[in-house]
Amino acid sequence: MDIVFAVGFQVMSGVATLLITSLGLAIIFGMMRVINLAHGEFLMLGAYAAILSARAGLNIWIAMLVVAPLVVGGIGLVIERLIIRRLYGRMVDTMLATWGLSLALIGAVTMIFGNTVAGFSAPLGSFAIGSFTASAYALFLIAAAIVLFGGIWALLRFTPAGLIARGTMQNAEMASALGVSPERVYAVTFAAGSAVSGLAGALIAPFSGVVPTMGAAFIAKSFITVITGGAAMLAGTFSASGLLGTVATLGTFATTPVFGEVMMLVVAIVLLRLLPQGITGRFFRRSL
Amino acid sequence: MSGIRLPIELAAASSVAIAAILVLPHVLELFALINATVYVSLAVLALSLALVWGFGGILCFGQAAFFGLGGYSYAVAAINFGDTTYAVPVAIAVPALVAAALGYVMFYGRISDVYMGAITLTLTLILFNFVNSTAGDQWRVGAAPLGGFNGIPSTPPLNLPGDPGNPLPPEWIFAIAVVSLLICYILAKLILRARFGRVIVAIRENERRAELLGYDVRAYKLGIFVIGGAMAGLSGLLFANCVFVSPTMFSLFYSGQIIIWVMVGGLGTLVGPVIGAILLNLLTTWAGTLPEINPSLILGAILVLAVLVMPRGMLPSLATVLGRFRGAGGVT
Questions:
Q1: Most B CBs within 10 Å: which of A96, A225, A226, A266, as the mutation test of the B interface?
Q2: Do A104 and B300 touch (CB under 8 A)?
Q3: How many CB atoms lie within 10 A of CB B50?
Q4: Which of B18, B46, B56, B237 would you label with A108, given CA atoms 20 to 30 Å apart?
Q5: Mean pLDDT computed over A149-177
Q6: Which alpha helices (H) appear in chain B, and where do they start and end?
Q7: Model ipTM?
């Protein structure tokens, strides 16, 4: 019985990690149809922001939950101004430009901080599930995923800002005719998505280790999760990370971590073949 | 296009190739010559994506998958056969078959742009993860251990057909690489001149119109994709001959670099990506010798600038500038 709970807990924390690391990308893709291939590096910048401010003497929770999203959100705002804004509507070009940005950020951070792994240990201890021990930080991660996801959903669903964002997402021209400036909405969206990525990077830092190239491990998984999810960003990302995270974690238990990941990627390819518009192209179409 | 231009272009390309084969081995030291062979093999890779993306309009994030498959198939086949004669067709056939299977899934499934990017990227990652995990004795194909993270350091160099006792010296490998590049270039030119190539370009320009005119878009796209896969396999084979095969051939870094070469060189041209590959590799090698600057920073900045400032790439932008003086058309 204990093992069922232990595996279930692992699955949940796997899904939560995937959800947290994909949300920033999903927000930007869902709202602006922009694929930010520098997403992995935004995670990395968030992790660095947290670790550096924690080393400077800041409380670790403030460093992770406040400093990281603020710093990366600010960086996102600048990048939107300099690069993304010039390429709206040119999806492939944006992908290429952000991919170049990703390389440049890796290079720049390597030059500044060196190629060594920095890290901080999970700030919480562990707890027992029967005869198994599990990390309390994983529990925190699951809670964080629920809060983050619920918060974004409530923001979009119930606030005036959310209404404007949803309206612009559905029909930018109409929103513009009604007096909304789509450019400002996009700028804020990109900054918000970046901030979520930064927060995610700080949250995963304790168990992933912080190196300039850490983004590469996440970008492909997040990209595939978001694409498999399809057009409705929240429902899509939620269902895709639920499915793919479960497959990856169970696969890891049955074989090795590498094959767990391979199984997840194979499932994603098969799913895209069956549902070329992603999960929400067929199911939950009218959701957010 | 006038009838006289093609022969002139082919003659020019051939003379450059012959000059390179005759001159470079005498001028360059051994290490530089091997490096030059690497660049030429990567130029073949750039050419393969130039064909698939620049003319077929298929943005493939996974060209490195075919590159790596070509290298690995060559190494495994050569070690097993003890002779590289038949390893060469294997190294071209395996990636072509994989491209056919993947292309079938994508084109006949009518998967759109971004999703195609996601799928090709995913395949590359699967291969990268898989090959990385094949350390240890249980992972071998026949006599060839796959070697996991370390790759196959004992990748045998090419020998003359049927004469496994005599591996070819680096000068020969260089010449073979240059000739392969020339053949691929001529092949690509001829494909684009033929009816098949014209339909491919028509599909890139307007897929629906081509379809309504009665062309089976899926089959044409599959065709160019398989040709690109085979070419990338050949490039992997050449690369394996001067370095050795390792999982980095499948890495995200390579998949992305190929896109940069094509983009910077000029999308929709054949010569541009070849020049782009060689110049950018020279640049990264040079940047690698500077201790304070990271090559990734330079490459990334170049890509961002290329997209923002000259989205059509180096060669077409240059042609436009020159054309203003001469009042003539572009380059292909």
A1: A96
A2: yes
A3: 31
A4: B46
A5: 89
A6: 5-27, 30-49, 63-81, 87-108, 113-132, 170-193, 195-205, 207-212, 217-242, 252-265, 271-289, 295-309, 314-326
A7: 0.82
